[in-house]
Amino acid sequence: SDLLLRIRQEFELDGDTITEILETKDIKKTFGGFYKGHSLKKAPKGFDKNHPNIHLINKKDFILLRKFTNKKVLHKDFQKTVLNSFESVIPFFDYMSSVLTTDMNGESIIRD
Asked: pTM here?
């Protein structure tokens, strides 16, 4: 719950960065954006229900999902397709790793 709160706080402060990542050509083409997943019906406690990023703040999971048909899995270029998928998701992983390893001031929360 602490990590979810941290992500929500980040989206409250700045939803533009994650939106830009999700709107990149590679992410849209490969994953279509966040998997629908689970969202709250109401704003979480302490968050403004009218916040412009409430659609992000209300999310309970942050999943990029790509499904493959059997035909695609058996295709000779499947390995390349998988590698391209992983490469396209790197900016998302980098962003989420940054959010989850820093506090709201951008200071590292990782202890030596």
From this structure: 0.86
pLDDT in tens, 67-112: 999 999 999 999 999 999 999 999 999 999 999 999 888 889 887 6
* HSE toward the beta carbon, residue 104, CA cutoff 13 A: 11
What are the structure tokens assigned to 66, written together? 């790509």
Instruction: Assess contact for 101 and 110: CB atoms under 8 A.
Output: yes
Reference 17, options 83, 86, 95; nearest CA is 95
C-beta atoms surrounding 83 within 10 Å: 10
Measure CA 39 to chain center.
13
- d(Cα 59, Cα 99) in Å, to the nearest integer? 16
Other beta carbons within 10 angstroms of residue 36's beta carbon come to 11
Number of Cα atoms under 13 Å in the Cβ half of residue 29: 9
